[in-house]
Design goal:
With 211 residues, the chain is an alpha/beta fold. The protein is built from ten helices and five strands; from the N terminus they run βαβαβαβαβαααααα. A five-stranded parallel beta sheet has the order 2-1-3-4-5, sandwiched between helices.
């Protein structure tokens, strides 16, 4: 079985070569760039590639997924110090060929990841799994119109619908309709919840407004 090391960090590459050397009958090749990986995969398409894309000339998840599609027999181990949650989610959701492991992982976990990849099985490191399980979904900002944003600011200041209508030279009915639309878009039921939501979403300045 062939393992391709695609990591331009000398100390990491030396450590991986030591680990691979303990894996039995594995041939270890080193690639210095993406072109080198592709050249090696053309002759050994069923290889395992251990790579750190942050130190390599692979730009993003899209490029990684293109490579995995181009070489469907290849297993990839993304081995890096710092990975964004969005990147990890995208890769895991899009391809079963890609394992993910942080460089801070214990040696036993690194060895197990390589073993699973050699068996054409995906492996997700414990720290990465914890990241995925504990991450909270990002709160979406409601898309308010300019008028709705201005009215929300007035609401946060404690102004009544009638006071806002007088300030804006609008009818009570018009402002009340805007108010209902704001509450609907924010998914809230009262002024207190609307103001808290607006503060969290950055729609209003917390130094200026009060909950």
């Amino acid at each position: 079985m062939t393992i391709i090391l695609a990591d331009n960090q000398d100390i990491t590459r030396a450590g991986l070569q030591f680990v691979v050397g303990q894996m039995g009958e594995c041939q270890c090749n080193v690639a210095n760039d993406k072109a080198g990986v592709i050249t090696l995969l053309k002759t050994t398409p069923d290889a395992v590639v251990i790579f750190d894309y942050t130190l390599f000339d692979i730009n993003d998840a899209d490029e990684m997924l293109i490579l995995s599609d181009r070489f469907p027999k290849t297993m990839w181990i993304l081995f890096s110090e710092d990975l964004s949650l969005d990147l990890v989610r995208r890769l895991i959701a899009s391809s079963t060929q890609i394992s993910v492991l942080l460089k801070e992982s214990p040696l036993a976990e690194i060895k197990e990841c390589v073993r699973q990849a050699l068996l054409s099985r995906r492996f997700i490191g414990q720290r990465v799994a914890e990241m995925l399980l504990t991450a909270q979904p990002a709160e979406e900002k409601a898309i308010l119109t300019r008028t709705e944003t201005e009215i929300l600011k007035d609401i946060a200041l404690g102004m009544t619908t009638r006071e806002i209508s007088e300030k804006r030279f609008s009818s009570f009915h018009t402002v009340n309709t805007h108010r209902k639309n704001i509450f609907r878009k924010l998914g809230v039921n009262n002024v207190h919840e609307a103001t808290k939501y607006a503060l969290r979403a950055g729609l209003i300045d917390p130094a200026e407004y009060y909950i």
